[in-house]
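Renewal narrative, Specific Aim 1. Our central claim is that a sequence can be written position by position from structural information alone. The example that follows is taken directly from our test logs and has not been curated for this report. It begins with the structure tokens describing the chain, in the order in which they were read.
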């Protein structure tokens, strides 16, 4: 009922977990092995929907992975699904998604913050360990703060924006939302 995820890739995630279990046994697992993460609906994930919280892009499937998405895949993280956001990242409460508002897990009378509200609520409610959100003017930091989490907007160009459906290209940054500073540092790296 929180409406944090727009799509959940459950079968794919289970298959990836089996693959990573084998890598762990073989000693070849990446740094993020088994970390279950979600990605904001503004990030391209090959052969998966990316609608930017908008009906305008409904039915669109990415033809490539965003660089940040590819890097977490390469490090053996498990992407569990795409997360709700204000339409095209324009909003600060996550009440402006074409797919309905995302509700704060603390109580339905509180907003999740936005535009990465789905990304924050998913971590807050233990639906995933971490999320990749995007921040233009506070869209990682505000929902993290509203949900009692750690949200980081990296220095511009620290994380590639390739594959991010942009709101304001000269300001947009992809950043981690986690429960601890340590997890944020690991994911950022």
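The sequence written for that structure reads:
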């Amino acid at each position: 009922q929180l409406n944090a995820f727009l799509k959940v890739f459950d079968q794919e995630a289970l298959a990836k977990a089996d693959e990573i279990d084998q890598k762990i046994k073989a000693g070849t697992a990446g740094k993020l092995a088994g970390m279950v993460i979600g990605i904001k609906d503004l990030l391209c994930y090959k052969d998966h929907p990316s609608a930017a919280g908008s009906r305008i892009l409904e039915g669109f499937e990415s033809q490539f992975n965003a660089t940040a998405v590819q890097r977490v895949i390469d490090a053996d993280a498990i992407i569990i699904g795409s997360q709700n956001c204000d339409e095209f990242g324009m909003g600060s409460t996550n009440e402006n998604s074409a797919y309905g508002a995302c509700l704060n897990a603390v109580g339905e009378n509180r907003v999740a913050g936005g535009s990465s509200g789905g990304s924050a609520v998913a971590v807050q409610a233990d639906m995933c360990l971490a999320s990749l959100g995007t921040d233009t003017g506070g869209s990682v930091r505000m929902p993290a703060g509203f949900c009692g989490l750690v949200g980081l907007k990296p220095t511009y160009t620290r994380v590639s924006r390739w594959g991010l459906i942009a709101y304001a290209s000269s300001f947009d940054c992809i950043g981690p939302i986690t429960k601890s500073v340590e997890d944020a540092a690991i994911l950022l790296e």
